[in-house]
Amino acid sequence: MSNMNNMKNMRNVIILISGGGSNMAAIVRAAQTEHWAERLGARVAAVISNRPDAPGLEFARAQGIATRVADHTLYPDRAAFDDALVQSIAPFDSQPPALVLLAGFMRILTEGFVQRYSGRLLNIHPSLLPAFAGLHTHQRALDAGCKQAGATVHRVTPDLDQGPILAQAAVPILPGDTAQTLAARVLSQEHLIYPRAVAQWLRDHRDGHDSQ
After folding, report:
1. Domain hosting residue 96, numbered range
2. Fewer CB near the terminus (10 Å): N or C of the chain?
3. What's 35's domain CATH number?
4. What DSSP assignment string belongs to 104-115?
5. Which residues are catalytic, by number?
6. Has residue 212 been placed in a domain?
């Protein structure tokens, strides 16, 4: 009975993906190896994709994690899709504060969705924000002659890639770098800082209070 009660009281982490989900996988592995359930009272409850063929879904299923698909191509506009996304999250959102993580989720969310999960919606972006918000970050960093690139974990707000920064990691831009080689080096840092930032958020909000 105590195990059932523990599961009922567990805080649910929901991860949204669009593709391979390597950052999702890094978070799942951290949750397993660092025993988030016991130490932080949290678990990765579900992985949700806007693409039914996203390879990351297979990884999640192999780990025994529930998966859902909200196929954005089936909805007439962003608002309708976001409503469907909320319905996909809802069964796992009964014990707030649930944390919703964007991990390579390639859809711009409506303000209504962002406000619904305000303060508990996080993203990882492949640049040192506030530099290079949006897409094609690595090529833009190269074109600008930057000496460093990196990744940023931030809270999601209605303004794209402008939310409060929670963690960053920098990598040097090397002679001969291409967007692809730089992206690979940045991604390795993403896999380190995102799980750490999530774990820190869970510690800071253990009792449902914002420590800001």
Report:
1. 2-204
2. N
3. 3.40.50.170
4. S--SPPPHHHHH
5. 125
6. no
